[in-house]
Amino acid sequence: MTQFQKILELLTNNRIDFVVVGGIASVAQGAASITADIDICYNRSEENLEKIIRSFKKYYFILRGAPQDLPFIFDKKTLKAGMNFTFSSKLGDIDLLGEVAGIGSYSEVIKKSEKMALYGLECHVLTIEGLLKTKKAANRPKDQIHIAELEELIRLKKN
Amino acid sequence: MNLNEYLQRTYNEKGIDRTLLIERLGWTPTQRLKVHEAVLRSTDELRKTAKKLSHDAIPENSRTTNKQQD
Questions:
Q1: Lower CB density within 10 Å: C or N end of chain A?
Q2: pLDDT digits over A88-125, tens only?
Q3: Between B30 and B1, residue with greater pLDDT
Q4: Is A131 exposed, middle or buried (0-12, 13-18, 19+ CB in 10 A)?
Q5: CA nearest A38: which of A53, A51, A52, A21?
Q6: Which chain A residue has the Cα nearest residue B29?
Q7: pLDDT tens for residues A31-77?
Q8: CB distance B17–A32 less than 8 Å?
């Protein structure tokens, strides 16, 4: 099982710039959905990439679903060459997103986030409105129920 | 309250269970995440148990390897 708390501890303790997005953000905001992985939008600055590699390298990150013998090195060069990654690791399944559908890069995503205490750690978490934007942009069949849930959460919070 | 009234009160027009969400709105974000983790652990446990039961349901003398079947 993905070690959500441990991952957030590593991100915050190492002062990595990130925003929690996706399923875990929805759960933190009050949705009743279930997700097995954690989605993180990360700042793609040189310094932040270095911090990510330094903090997570020892947890054996591999590309999720890729053949076992596919050569892969989890380093700054690899992160720079790509944008969005789906990883498996000793900490579980982690998605690192340089861009979030419907919003954009980290600098845009952080504007649509709010600070929340998750396991006692101050984290930026995408707002319900931000989550709705991403789900509507992705517009997959499986997102329709999440969209309905997020819309109801907004309604309930207003009341 | 009859069943229809109950259903209308509980579920919105898109079938979303309001009572689940109202419950969660009363929790802190950390509590929400901890409940979520507990659900994931239970799901894992159910999966392992189902797998074991499926395996145990096969009569012992039928649990052959491919080599034996050849």
A1: C
A2: 999 999 999 999 999 999 999 999 999 999 999 999 99
A3: B30
A4: buried
A5: A21
A6: A28
A7: 999 999 999 999 999 999 999 999 999 999 999 988 878 888 999 99
A8: yes
Predicted ipTM beyond 0.95: no
> What is the C-alpha separation between B63 and A105, in angstroms, rounded?
53
Those residues whose C-beta lies under 8 Å from the C-beta of residue A28, and which sit 6 or more positions away, are: A20, A116, A118, A125, B29, B32, B33
B55 part of contact set with chain A, CB < 8 Å: no
Contacts of B15 in chain A (CB under 8 A): 148
Q: Which residue of A has its CA nearest to B42?
A: A1
Q: Do A118 and B30 count as a contact with CB atoms less than 8 A apart? A: yes
